[in-house]
């Protein structure tokens, strides 16, 4: 009898403690003063799925401020940027008649614009990797590589072996990969490079329990810099699937190679991230060699991260949409936009701008794809044209507008890229690059289905319900 009473008391105390923990967590979420949409999403998860919600909030929900990710002293040093004084001397100065987005990024992101660049566009992984490995084979001084994913497969091993050969020639090599992006990669894969003198670091290691709050802040950038003169940036990682695609279609992506002074921006981004993990700030002039005029492209390397005070690239997108006069084309694999971006897209379309968004008809992630589809009707209602790419998986991150502005990089149109990830995009100003990337978009459009609201309304109620439920969690995905 006494045991039964004790069990009941214990269960009552457990229930009280359990409820207290849930309510306390909800209170902490509210006090964090984050986006109200995100706050409500977390409250819903904690209220209806308390146990799962607590685990997810512990790993993914806590807000990590800059002083936790990077020390205050370190962040202060980073804000000065490597070789900033030298770069400022060679940066483009005549900004009066240039795109207002350029000056916006210069003010908010300290991103210096550089003219005189040559840019090559790659729309498949085979040509990009062939070019990257060719440039690596010509390296004389240093190779800096940064990828979210660096797989231990045929492609990863091929590049690894090439890097080992260059290290044996005396070339200084640094490789930075994301810890979460490479969770499944055997550490021995990277250890083999370490044994050959290659410096290899993972970004923000996630180790239970101390660093679990960092699992949500990932380095999604894809950057390569060879001898400080040639740089690569875009959406492609190092993995075999980027070449082979899927059984149901190709993997369609966009990457660029830059020759010219804009490589200073790529180098600065890499060296800043390298300092975060290695605590060594490299500012030698060897990493910023003098360069002659290479072409006619004006370029600006813009980064965004969760440790600064602003959502730089997201706010730049809103600014660009507000300034668009004739058209604005977007390619993105995922569409989970913030409220600000939704309103900007709708406003531009309602003002008569030809706004087009291209998504994959079939994606690599079921849940995120369903969430993306939930936004289409309200965008089409405002006049946004939605194209579904049918040839395979569209992983390209590309914007082009008014034959003046274009960009390629790692930033997706979703909460994670805009608010949580470390991202990087190359922004180009001028007709030459805009027309070339516009042609890329229009070429992809030939493999697309143009949605209509009438057609879209005929999808099953099951799909509508799944999309709506997933949308509630969009800020957390």
**Would you identify the CATH architecture of the largest domain?**
2-Layer Sandwich
Within CATH, the superfamily of the largest domain carries the name Endonuclease Chain A
| Coarse morphology | globular
N- and C-termini, Cα separation: 49 Å
Helix vs. strand class: alpha/beta
User: In the CATH scheme, what's the topology name of the largest domain?
Assistant: Endonuclease, Chain A
InterPro entries: Cardiolipin_synth_Firmi, Cardiolipin_synthase, CLS_N, PLD-like_dom, PLipase_D/transphosphatidylase
Transmembrane segments: 9-30, 42-60
Subcellular location: Cell inner membrane; Cell membrane
Enzyme class: transferase
Structural overview:
- This protein has 477 residues and is an alpha/beta fold.
- The chain has three domains: 2-63, no CATH class; 72-302, Endonuclease Chain A (Endonuclease, Chain A); 312-476, Endonuclease Chain A (Endonuclease, Chain A, 2-Layer Sandwich).
- The chain has helices at 2-31, 36-48, 50-61, 66-69, 72-79, 84-90, 100-109, 125-137, 154-168, 187-195, 241-244, 263-278, 312-323, 339-350, 366-373, 376-381, 415-420, 431-445, 453-456, 461-472, and strands spanning 113-122, 142-147, 172-178, 199-203, 223-226, 230-234, 250-252, 255-259, 297-304, 327-331, 335-336, 354-360, 385-389, 392-394, 398-401, 405-409, 413-414, 423-429, 448-450.
- The strands form three sheets. The protein has a 15-stranded mixed sheet with strand order 4-3-2-5-6-8-1-9-18-16-15-10-12-13-19, with helices on both faces. It has a two-stranded parallel sheet with strand order 7-14.
- Strand 3 (172-178), helix 10 (187-195) and strand 4 (199-203) form a beta-alpha-beta unit.
- Helix 1 runs antiparallel to helix 2 (36-48), helix 2 (36-48) runs antiparallel to helix 3 and helix 15 (366-373) crosses helix 20.
